[in-house]
Design goal:
Elements lengths: L1 H11 L7 H16 L7 H45 L5 H24 L5 E2 L2 E2 L2 H28 L4 H9 L10 H13 L21 H6 L13
Antiparallel strand pairs: 1-2
Helix pairs in contact: 3-4, 3-5, 3-7, 5-6
């Protein structure tokens, strides 16, 4: 989980890459300080409050949205092709069925069961005060709030009608794809085999390659393309 946190920051802010060790050390110190309240005499009550609301609700909702976006918006077949480009083979069909059907249904069942049987947080028979329950719900909502907030901001940045803006947000960004230029050429060609559910209209840096060109001829034209610098996913 910590590696996911570090990778997210480093990918989003490339200027952190040369300072990754220092940044990692700084995050370790910050999380160490944030964890101190959980190991005090009353820390178990803090931990129970975090686990009761954050793990039960926000984790399930984020996981459900991940399955929907990958399997139904981006497309599990397109996602499988991306994995094949990286590791040399597609994921087993069982995983693809799980992403698309089984996991979303199980998560929905867990969420429904959790909401129906939800009770205010307690520990060893001790009921939490109202203000603590409010803090618990706020903790659960903070991690989820980023999703509609960023989605709304991205919609506002687009132009056109609501439907046109929505479609633009559902399509992969032109910068989406491998970071290396030669791999972006292969990625562009693979889109002809199977595109995402909402087709990516442009692949930055390689769109000058004719759609009917072979991979070998496309590879020879890499250095002639106008690239956007350090492309990243």
């Amino acid at each position: 989980m910590f590696e996911c946190l570090i990778s997210a920051f480093v990918d989003e802010f490339p200027w952190l890459r040369p300072k990754k060790i220092l940044f990692t050390a700084m995050m370790c110190c910050i999380l160490f300080l944030l964890g101190i309240p959980c190991v005090t005499n009353g820390g178990v009550y803090v931990l129970q409050l975090m686990d009761w609301y954050s793990a039960a609700f926000s984790l399930m909702i984020v996981s459900l949205l991940e399955c929907v976006v990958i399997a139904w918006v981006y497309g599990e077949e397109r996602f499988s092709l991306d994995i094949e480009m990286m590791v040399g083979h597609k994921p087993h069909k069982w995983f693809r069925i799980c992403w698309k059907y089984i996991s979303p249904m199980v998560i929905c069942f867990i969420l429904l069961f959790t909401f129906i049987n939800h009770e205010p947080v307690t520990y060893n028979g001790v009921e939490y005060p109202g203000w603590a329950i409010v803090i618990g719900w706020l903790m659960a909502l903070v991690s989820i709030a980023a999703i509609p907030t960023v989605g709304t901001v991205m919609m506002m940045k687009k132009q056109g009608t609501f439907k046109e803006r929505l479609l633009q947000c559902l399509r992969p960004d032109p910068l989406w794809g491998p970071i290396k230029q030669e791999n972006r050429v292969l990625y562009r060609k693979s889109l002809e085999k199977h595109a995402s559910r909402f087709k990516q209209l442009h692949v930055s840096g390689v769109d000058r390659i004719p759609s009917g060109a072979s991979l070998s001829s496309a590879g020879n034209e890499i250095e002639c393309l106008n690239t956007d610098g350090d492309l990243h996913v």
